[in-house]
Amino acid sequence: xxxxxxxxxxxxxxxxxxxxxxxxxxxxxxxxxxxxxxxxxxxxxxxxxxxxxxxxxxxxxxxxxxxxxxxxxxxxxxxxxxxxxxxxxxxxxxxxxxxxxxxxxxxxxxxxxxxxxxxxxxxxxxxxxxxxxxxxxxxxxxxxxxxxxxxxxxxxxxxxxxxxxxxxxxxxxxxxxxxxxxxxxxxxxxxxxxxxxxxxxxxxxxxxxxxxxxxxxxxxxxxxxxxxxxxxxxxxxxxxxxxxxxxxxxxxxxxxxxxxxxxxxxxxxxxxxxxxxxxxxxxxxxxxxxxxxxxxxxxxxxxxxxxxxxxxxxxxxxxxxxxxxxxxxxxxxxxxxxxxxxxxxxxxxxxxxxxxxxxxxxxxxxxxxxxxxxxxxxxxxxxxxxxxxxxxxxxxxxxxxxxxxxxxxxxxxxxxxxxxxxxxxxxxxxxxxxxxxxxxxxxxxxxxxxxxxxxxxxxxxxxxxxxxxxxxxxxxxxxxxxxxxxxxxxxxxxxxxxxxxxxxxxx
Length: 507
What we know:
Elements: E1 2-7, H1 24-41, E2 47-51, H2 53-62, E3 69-71, H3 87-94, E4 101-104, E5 108-110, H4 116-119, E6 123-130, H5 136-145, H6 151-160, E7 164-173, H7 177-192, H8 194-197, H9 205-220, E8 225-227, E9 252-254, H10 263-276, H11 278-290, H12 305-311, E10 316-320, E11 326-330, H13 335-355, H14 363-373, E12 382-386, E13 391-395, H15 404-407, H16 413-418, E14 425-432, E15 437-442, H17 447-456, E16 458-460, H18 461-475, H19 478-493, E17 497-501, H20 503-506
Parallel strand pairs: 1-2, 1-4, 2-3, 6-8
Antiparallel strand pairs: 4-7, 5-9, 6-7, 10-11, 12-16, 12-17, 13-14, 14-15
């Protein structure tokens, strides 16, 4: 089976070619890691890139990514419909294949070989999506207003009062002609309802066309879809962004929606690329070094921008909620809040100035991580300590701007469990050398780990797991156990916790 990826460049200005990532650098690192992993784990399968001339120049001529063939079919490609419907280009590419194929998004990372049984399926997708609220506005608009709703778009909902789609982070199959029929169906559907499409909100519109209509069209044709992942996910796809869980706990990652704009996800992507494919990583760094005009986002110029906001009246701050969307929160404050906030930002500025050096990624750190977790090592042979450059502070959670862990909360009630009313939150401040900023992490259940570390300074890794297990059993918080086990890996991967050989084992 042929593997394929599509790179359509919506801009020819590299400064804005971020593909939804924090910066163009992470966008291209995503392409590099995704394609390199595909070729590493499937060396006998052809890997094709479909792009335009500008995309070819970047990924092939400049970066020399491991594609076996390139098709510049996207040059001057345009459809006589809304420019917001970029997904049509992606769907058009699927019609070009005259053989079985598997398409993979560039934010999909496969750390192993795909099941051959799956690759022999007629239709393939990542997983089924049941009643995701992102599709409902589209479904409702079609039912209420469209002149030609078409049976395939509404029949299942009318009969079952639910809406089902499938995530197409990977898609394809043996029935390649199905994708030609589906593309023609979508074009016809859009043409018949062209006026209504102009008034549809663009948020999630492309996703609805690509994934909701695909599932409904397959159902109407009695075509079975085989899924890579049969687990039921929530819209935030919790866990599929966890680089610190590969390859022993996860062999497949897909950074959907806002996950590409979370700082620690970008940092973990960079670490993984630098460790697994150091030559490719260096090539990307050299590429950006040669393009001096491309700015990589860094820390804000104003160290005290939040304090200044607090001094103003009627303050509102944009905050990410638990599935990664942006909401606006009104802030009420008193003078003591402003003083505390000033001290908090002063601490961040101090850490930044102290550690803002041209640090390179510590390959030894990742080697130690893999030695511990991927080689079935005896955990009693390693101790855990807190990185001395990490600072733990107290602050109201509403002021934490880079709230990475908050977006990834497994259970929202864990916040209530570990935080009393009106209690200030525990926040870790950790310098990110790759991005040259200070990451801010709200601690929930994870604060237990740091409480133990502060009391003992050093804990045997095996004993730390035992403490977690005993605590969860004694308090009947069994679902917290897996969260804490995963967070240990996260903090070690992020260099927040340091692992060293146990001194007894060295004697």
